[in-house]
Design brief:
The protein is α/β, with parallel strands linked by helices. 45% of the residues lie in helices and 11% in strands. Strands 1-2-3-4-5 form a five-stranded mixed β-sheet, sandwiched between helices. Strand 2 and strand 3 form a beta hairpin. The longest helix has 48 residues, at 233-280.
Length: 330
């Protein structure tokens, strides 16, 4: 839910919606839109038996010739694609059109304005669901029933297809950040963004972007950011650098500890194998493999048992808990 609210906060800024369309919607008619007329529509879409749709972003924008279109941004935050998304888009678009009728938001000719549904997807796997409702209906191509079927198609922007973003696009930076796998990868993005931060991005959007960074993105990458100055990009850079140094120290310490533990176990294995061979002769392959994969506790137990055992089998018949090792009986 925090991820959803972070995205809705970002795309409540018309500047980011304009950036999204200009940079990632490759349709020729986008060039004909007058984004200075972009305004958000306050519509709460719901119908009997359906959940309320309070979160979707609905914008109204005019063409340069004065005609209008509704940009219905259906922001999805799923780890896997939804195979029924095309059907959901039909339902939500129908609800929007009914809302426009109730509000008397019709064109001068008394007709409904066009709607452009857009799905913004940020899951890990590539989106492979049908983008057109026709693909979900079980009808052969050559049938007289097609004209009577509902028809709609949504435009998909899959963030995973833009790991490098797009030059000059803040939405592109957002996609790059989403595609990062560690805090270390965020540092050059923040450094590049710092130069244009105050000159190209309005203050309210700067706050939303930093808040999204610290509340949504960075906690998912192992960064604890409970108390931050959400208006200061420089603090982002400092905290990133600090966190990366902490990670490097933690990894180095962990490597040393694992290496030390591995060295101790290796020494214990060699010592026990040597003791067993001195008392009982050459170890069978199965016995040696058992020793090499034993825990430190098992090695300690067998090291004590060897003092009183008369045969090799007796050494391994006692488990670490002191009970007979049933694996020897199988």
């Amino acid at each position: 839910m925090q991820h959803d609210s972070g995205y809705h906060l970002l795309f409540s800024h018309p500047e980011l919606v304009e950036d999204l369309f200009k940079s990632f919607v490759t349709e020729p008619w986008v060039d004909q839109l007058d984004f200075s007329t972009l305004e958000r529509v306050n519509a709460k879409l719901h119908a009997e038996g359906l959940d309320r749709r309070d979160g979707d972003m609905i914008y109204r924008v005019l063409y340069r010739d004065g005609s209008e279109v509704y940009l219905y941004l259906l922001l999805e935050f799923q780890s896997t694609p939804d195979p029924w998304m095309a059907l959901r888009v039909v339902v939500y678009t129908s609800l929007l059109l009914q809302h426009l009728i109730r509000e008397n938001r019709l064109t001068p000719t008394g007709k409904l304005p066009p709607v452009f549904p857009l799905v913004l997807y940020n899951g890990d796997s590539r989106w492979n669901a049908a983008q057109e409702l026709k693909e979900l209906i079980a009808l052969p191509d050559a049938t007289p029933l097609w004209p009577y079927q509902p028809s709609i198609r949504y435009y998909l922007v899959d963030e995973s297809r833009y790991p490098e973003g797009k030059p000059g696009s803040l939405v592109g930076v957002l996609f790059q950040i989403e595609n990062c796998r560690s805090v270390d990868e965020l540092r050059p993005l923040m450094d590049a963004l710092a130069g244009q931060w105050k000159t190209l991005i309005p203050p309210s959007l700067r706050r939303a972007f930093i808040s999204w960074m610290f509340r949504v993105v960075m906690p998912g990458k192992g960064f604890d950011a409970n108390q931050v100055n959400v208006e200061n990009l420089a603090e982002v850079q400092v905290m990133l650098a600090t966190r990366v140094k902490q990670w490097e120290q933690e990894l180095l310490k962990k490597g040393r500890e694992e290496g030390r533990e591995e060295g101790v176990l290796t020494g214990e294995v060699k010592l026990l194998c040597r003791q067993l061979e001195l008392k009982f002769g050459t170890l069978p392959g199965a016995m040696r493999l058992k020793v090499e994969h034993a825990s430190s506790a098992e090695l300690d137990q067998w090291g004590l048992t060897i003092l009183t055992a008369k045969t090799l089998d007796e050494v391994f018949q006692i488990s670490v808990s002191g009970q007979p090792d049933r694996t020897q009986e199988q």
